Amino acid sequence: MVETIHSVIDGLQDWLWTYVNIGLLIGCALYFTFRTRFVQFRLFKEMFRLMLSSGEKKEHGDISGLEKKQISSFQAFVVALASRIGTGNLAGVATAISVGGPGAIFWMWVMALFGSATAFVESSLAQLYKRRGENSFYGGPAYYMLHGLHRRWMGVLFSFLMIITFGFANNAMQSNTIALACEKAFDIPLLWMGMALCLLTIAVIFGGIHRIARISSAVVPVMAVVYLVLALFIVLSNITVLPKVMCMIVENAFGVGQVAGGTLGTIVMMGIKRGLFSNEAGEGSAPNAAATASVSHPVKQGLIQALGVFADTLVVCSCTAFVILCSGVDYTASNGIQLTQNALTHEIGSIGNTFIAVVIWLFAFSTIIANCYYGETNLLFFTKSKLSLFVYRMIASGCVMAGALLTLDLAWSIIDLCMAMITICNLIAIILLFPKVKFLVADYLSQKKAGKDPVFKKSMMSKIEKDLDAWE
Predict the structure, then answer these.
(1) How many CA atoms are closer than 13 Å to the CA of 412, on its beta-carbon side?
(2) Which of 35, 129, 371, 446 is 20 to 30 Å from the Cα of 355, by its Cα?
């Protein structure tokens, strides 16, 4: 029975990716890049300035009237980064290399460079159409579908898919990776680890977005730096083979000297699939965090979230790829997080197993709690019932435990199917709403040119949009 279900899920997700998602993702990434005149490259320096700025929170508090418990621009960035930096960076990259060969990494890079424009568009829209909560803002694709496109059915569909994808399926994938890593490193039974993760998830998510933001802003930078330092050490230790690795990646990306035996289509598909799972550009998840930020102009958070795509794929994912390929381990002999563990063990000894288990635990658990918030935001689109929220949190926590017991292949098939459906829905919406982003970019650059710190107000867009609850 399980094998039959797996076969059906795998066939459906493969069909969607082959005939729909690949074309949509590439098309949107190129379209938004050219229509914004390469905003992700032109304003790269501005992205860093905005992320490091400390004055946004107070400034927008005066405009919005939300004086307490606001989520800063940086906190919103790291909540989104917590969801991005996780299984995709360690296990996802390893899976891409194992199935598609080294060339899959090249296509992950390409999609990050152009897909960051998609991330900019969706996060700017999330800011524009965010809503006022009791203590903070909230929003995301479901809200810009309702208030921007005025299509409630589309928002309902997206919210349902978001809850399934992130509250349930993605969290199952994260716990699956943690459990496998800890089993290999510490011989901890999968069931025990699943139960522990379930209890910890319950303890954290009942604290809400503010606890998630505090934990993420404390944990994510530390764990990312530690992992990057170790990866850099390994790459520098193998600096003589790095040129060969780069050539292998580029050649394999176009089917030249294919070692894994796959076709060019498999290489490209795995690169784009795992790239999307890792950086989430266009998937519609990061906008849920972007909407919570208190900034003076929607474009500001759009730029910051675009920077998250670069940080995730071009930096963290690349480190994992270089560690695996520089180590010289047989990347076709194992898969997922255990391939990354094998590569690190080859380089630094048996402690590599332990280190990766600890890092993936931190990476993936921070992703779990961020994903739970994404699901909660979309549940609010249906109902504000406290009972419904309680039930959602308990089911989400249960999926964390169940995920630890899934097979690796089934876990990836489920998340690939969910990602395919939710991405289609989100990309259609942001294509239709793109003219609003064009207006925002023009306004932002105009104010910058005049020497001002850009500030957006509802009246600026009153002729083309009136339903802007947070910008009065």
Answers:
(1) 22
(2) 371
